[in-house]
Give the backbone structure.
Amino acid sequence: MPEGQQPILELQGITKSFGGVEALRGVDFALYPGEIHGLVGENGAGKSTLMKIIAGVHTEFSGRFLVDGKEMHFRSARDAHAAGIAMVHQELSVAPDLTVAENVFLGNQPTNRLGLVQWRRMAREAGEQLARFGIDVDPMSRLGDLPIGLQQLIEIARVLFSGARIVILDEPTSALSPPEVERLFATLRRLRQEGTAIVFISHFIEDILRVSDTVTVFRNGRKVAETASAATSKGALIEAMIGRGGEALEHSYTDDLMLPQPSDRKVVLKVDQLSLSRSLQDISFEARAGEVLGIYGFMGCGQQELSRILFGKLKPDGGTLAVEGTPKSFASTAAARRAGVALVPESRRDMLFHQEPVYKNISISILDRISALLLKPARERDIAKRQVEQLQIRPPVVGLDLGMLSGGNQQKVALAKWLTYPPKLLVLCEPTRGMDVGAKNDVINIVRDLRARGLAIIVLSTEPETVLSLADRILVLKRGALVREFKNEPVSKDRLLEAA
Amino acid sequence: MSSETALAAGRRARGLAPFLRSQMRNIAPFLTLIFLTAFFAFASPSFATLDNLGNILTQVSVTGIIAVGLTFVILCAEIDLSIAAIANVTGIAVAYFTLQESYVNIANVPLPGAVAIILSILLCALLGLVNALGLTAIGIPSFIMTLAMMQIAAGISALLVRGQIAYKVPSLITTLGSGSIGGVPWIVIVAAIMLLGGHLVLTYTRFGRYVYMVGGNREAAEYSGLNVKLILGAVMVISAVCSGIGGMLGVAHFGSAQQNEFDTYLLDSIAAVVVGGTSLFGGRGGIGNTIVGLFVLGVLNNGLDHVNIDSFLKILIRGLILLAALVINVYAQRLREKAAE
């Protein structure tokens, strides 16, 4: 990067351990003004730990921490903020019930001499700020009414415009549609020109390569590579990340992929003219046994609602569902489960019990099959042990509280709970989101295995790679309507994006 | 977290200090109990006697019976404010259906004892069902729903006795409420059996597991295909029936049935469950905690009578102890969450 310039932030020999386990081992890191610095690494490689140290979240560590060449020691995130460091976390942290303008000015609304909020001024300035970002919304509308992608952009905009000199973005693009990503990148480039230093963490290596100047790769708490983005490639980065030949694992899906002949096995689910107020219109499709049906679309296209309707969590306004030819109207998720439908939602937090041991998480949805009145803990543990072995859940201890497992392993537990007595139809939302390459591959293999056992599987995702890596047939959902079906024909990332 | 760090985290959590932290909600109430007992034993020679232990057990029995059902409700992260009013109306109902002495001026409906008891239990179950439907079918928060039920039950009580006092209840109820066998009051035995029963249901049955899971993460329970509404409805009915039984035995224990007789039992029952360490956020705790909570309250109430203390100050002291317990309850939840991270 800029030779001879003084780094705005410099870390030397940072070591951080959690109860004897070293999460970071002697990491050096330098960030220059006007630089976009990409950070890649598998889950648990240490990227987030390092960023949390920079943002003042973790305050205990060893090593030197310099801002503008002066040694600093933050005691809290507030100190980091005062030093001009701001971070956008992976999870949304907005106030959905407040207006867009209030969210943009959260904590420092413009007030007049009496301390009253100047609404008109706030709305005007918020509108101007967002317009610079290419976001055209009514600043007085309720934030929660906007699509998730837009909410995330607004949160990012708030941080970017807060005047911070160092901005850390943790997985900012995972909930954004391609045009939204473009807007984000354009803004990042403009900020770079103004001299802001930006750290960009992402699993999407293409995004990193496109927007960043420098890329740093982490593996097992160590920095294993730092290189100019122009001088490296996706394959090289993946290899550095996982320390083995990466090409075979991460398919880029830019070339055409041939979808197989459509299955002619029995129809497990038939959906006819389903509609839900503003979210879904006239949705009709079939899912067959032994087939993975992919449903692709941008964030907010109605996937979430569709999956909830299939599992009895939402009631559609119109249309019919039939499971194996029998019409169903699911009054509850319990009814859907009895009919043989299972759902793994995109948010693991929603479907797992973090304070309960792994085996209780696995057995919960099959308890009525293994016990009439009294529990059989030994049986539960046996079943859980078998699943843990089959799905290679780590650590293989069924008595451990679920919260102790890593994200990828939690996702496997979320799958495992449905597999002892497999359902007829398995609905998976974003099954590989936020996972590292290895865990992704495990999940893909599990799904293929289930297909071979004759389940009908529906995979809904906003990531083209996920759909392409799993599906035998692909539907494209756009603004609540099915616009295209890919079957028995070549398909690629470009073609999918074009259809959406 | 990678798998190695997760494994290490698991190992760490099995160390002593984190274990104690995660068990804070169980340990703190127990320490409180030991401390209070030691204090009163030291302060008053009449406190630490076998006779007085019997007194304490008898004094907490009605609360204990009501608290069994309430434990289920709080484990589900709901609340039932109608317990005392339902206890009251059930106690009044069982007297209403019993032949009273001629000087009792109540237009009642005398029925055979067994019928009176069954009708009374049906009444409290019905009121619990109304709570359940309001909570699950209509979606009224339990706090408000049971507040309304508190008034409804008090209203039925008022209509039944019209300001009068009834004395007679069926002989079975009289025996269980005020009789004793081999020196042990029946009401203590009933409370013990119900507490044990509640514990067995919570620990060893499928329904008990569902209660914990619904309380631990309702969203996840729904995504696991559990019938969450059915479980919530069931705990509301269980709570009402336990309250009703407590009310019937209580009436026999006090020797009379009248309006507003159980008012203090609302706070006492909630206090017993929460002081014992059952989480107000649901999913953690159990009957074991409730038993410890009952003893803390029992020792405190009883002990304050044994030491020379301004009787008006006692109310304040009880309030402060309750506040301390609430602080510990919320704090323990936070520690537990931290230990799980």
In short: Chain A touches chain B through 50 residues (CB under 8 Å).
